[in-house]
């Protein structure tokens, strides 16, 4: 698996290098006044293409492992790999179309990801078989469409959740990387080397992209990259729970609660203000950290350099915040009550931290 990780990392690194070199043309069309822009100058938003190339090479290698009977126990059939690649490519295409044109509305992108989710459910037989709650699981088992519906929601929604937290250099990419390693660890604990390899392919491709994205910000993942992270991680999470009864369904819930809750809280916040949930604004948690915690940390005469340094300084705050969910998720991956407790604890901590920043009541040491 180490070879697979290195192969995908190297492939994505080279593919992303070509995009950095030849992809700047489209970046000039990206609006300079949009509220989610926190960088200076034209930067290509095509990192998703480079990572998709790395994933394609990795999943092809997994198929070749079966064809040539490689002794690595990560063999994957053409049907499995082909179905996964088709769903992923359709989802990434929706994001890349927006990255290139900036004209694809959130409604159309959501529609395309929902189509991809139904395709994934059909081709990969996805379903969430249980919720880990004895009082509910009997009803859940008697109504299979509930598990299918939840799988559709997960696969169609998580790409947009990752897109929502993709605001600063290395932020969403590192969160995705850590989640991939956590999923691979649990998959190996239950003996599923194929599923572990699938997410390690994405981890390697993400690592190759991050070499160009952090800290210099030479290329962004764009909607295509965020959708790639979301669709692969959501499919892997559903498959892990579906294949292995030992794995609590609350393991992926806690593991991914940061982007999921950021999305749910954002929808609530905008709806309460009478705004469309699809309307972009600058009040997400990571944007508040950038504006109210990292502001004034650097004293540099070059505005572009100062913006880049603040951008890079923001991500570690959120990495630490995300680790507060990843660590307990990995430790208690088969313990539903503990996972549920830590999920509630994260939600309470998030709301407390959010309103503390809004009201300028954050601790002074956070700004040092």
What's the arrangement of secondary structure elements?
Blueprint: H1 2-22, H2 47-67, H3 78-101, H4 106-124, H5 134-142, H6 144-165, H7 171-189, H8 193-213, H9 222-243, H10 250-255, H11 257-272, H12 285-292, H13 303-331, H14 336-358
Quick structural overview:
The protein is mainly alpha-helical. 71% of the residues lie in helices and 0% in strands. It has one domain.
**Strands, total number:** 0
Shape: globular
Summing up helix and strand content along with how strands pair, one would put the structural category as mainly alpha
Estimated share of beta-strand residues: under 5%
Helix content: over 70%
Key words describing this protein structure:
single chain, mainly alpha, 368 residues
Characterise this structure.
It is a single chain. The protein is an all-alpha fold. The chain has one domain (2-367). The protein is 71% helix and 0% strand. The protein is built from 14 helices and no strands. Helix 1 packs antiparallel against helix 2 (47-67) and helix 8 (193-213) packs antiparallel against helix 9 (222-243). It is globular and about 55 Å long. The model has no long low-confidence stretch (mean pLDDT 87).
